[in-house]
């Protein structure tokens, strides 16, 4: 029998399969699950489980940023427009959000 805590997590947790590798994206603020106002600027942590990336990345997600303000700086086909798979996965939940990697090299 599955524990009730496994069916309804107390903290936000997402299991990810990015580029054929499994990883975990999670938050430490339980209110993110129940209070939509907490989704303005919040922190998530990403652990890839890869030996070459043993550290957990601390991400800051901003759902009210204005990405169109930077649109004029680069062309739509420029390499700077490509985003890591993790950022694209985060945007499936929070469309248009900006992701700050807080000094960590983005995972491809």
TrEMBL record:
Q: Which GO terms describe its biological process?
A: protein K48-linked deubiquitination; proteolysis
Q: Domain of life of the organism in this record?
A: Eukaryota
InterPro entries for this protein: MINDY-3/4_CD (IPR025257), MINY3/4 (IPR039785)
| Molecular function terms, GO-annotated | cysteine-type deubiquitinase activity; K48-linked deubiquitinase activity
Q: Which UniProt keywords apply?
A: Hydrolase, Protease, Thiol protease, Ubl conjugation pathway
As recorded in UniProt, its EC number(s) are 3.4.19.12
- The residues covered by the Deubiquitinating enzyme MINDY-3/4 conserved domain are 2-103
Would you identify the family this protein belongs to, as annotated?
Belongs to the MINDY deubiquitinase family. FAM188 subfamily.
Q: What is this protein called?
A: Ubiquitin carboxyl-terminal hydrolase MINDY
- The organism of origin for this protein: Alaudala cheleensis
Q: Which gene encodes it?
A: Mindy4b_0
């Amino acid at each position: 029998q599955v524990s009730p805590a496994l069916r309804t997590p107390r903290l936000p947790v997402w299991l990810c399969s990015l580029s054929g590798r499994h990883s975990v994206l999670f938050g430490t603020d339980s209110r993110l699950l129940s209070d939509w106002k907490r989704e303005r600027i919040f922190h998530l942590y990403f652990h890839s489980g890869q030996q070459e990336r043993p550290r957990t990345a601390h991400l800051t997600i901003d759902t009210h940023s204005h990405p169109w303000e930077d649109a004029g700086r680069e062309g739509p086909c420029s390499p700077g427009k490509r985003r890591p798979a993790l950022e694209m996965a985060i945007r499936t939940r929070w469309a248009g959000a900006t992701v700050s990697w807080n000094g960590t090299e983005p995972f491809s």
